[in-house]
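for the writeup, i need someone to sanity check this before i put it in the appendix. the sequnce is what the collaborator sent (i think, or maybe the updated version? ugh). structure was predicted straight from it, no edits. if anything looks off just tell me and ill rerun, i have time this weekend
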Amino acid sequence: MENFTILDHSGIIHYETIGELIHTFKDQIHLKGIQTGTYKKILLVMIESLENIMKHSECCPPGQNPASTYMPVFSIRKDVSQFIIASSNPVKKQSIPAFKDRLEYLNTLDQQGLKDFYKKTITNGLFTNRGGAGLGLIEIAKISGKKITYEFSPLDDHCDRFNMIITIDETSN
C-alpha cells in the first residue's frame, strides 16, 4: 500500500482553524479513496485531537505569537494499512502528572472499560477549569480501539511538549 500525508498543520488552533482542517480532510478522502468507516473514525479522532490542542495548549506569553518551538502541530498520514494521527502542543510541567495518570489509566482499559469510564465521567457532573468534562481522550481511545501513544519532551523550565500518536486501522467497507 502507498504511504502519503493527508494533512499537515502547524499553528495556533481556533474553531475556525478546525473547520478549515476538516474541510481540507474531506477533500482528501475522495482523492485518496479512504473508506467511509475509516473516514468517520479519523474525522472523530481528528476533531477531538484538535479541540484538545485548542483547549489545552499552554505556555504562550499573553499577547505574543508563540515561537515555532511552542507552536501546536497536527498531521494525518497513511502508513501501510493504518492511519496515523499525530498531535503536539505545549503544556505546563505542573499539568503533566495528572495528565499522565489519566493517559496511563485509559491505556489499561479494554473497550468495555472505556465505555464504562465514559458513562461514569459523563454522569459525574464534574467539569474541568476549561469547560470540558474530560471526555476527549476517552473518546479518542474508544474510537481508535488502540492504546494512546504519547510522550512529554522538555521545552523550557516551565513547559513540555505533549506529543500524541493515535493509529486507526484501515477498514474495508
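The two ends are 17 Å apart (CA to CA). The chain has a mean pLDDT of 87.
thx in advance!!
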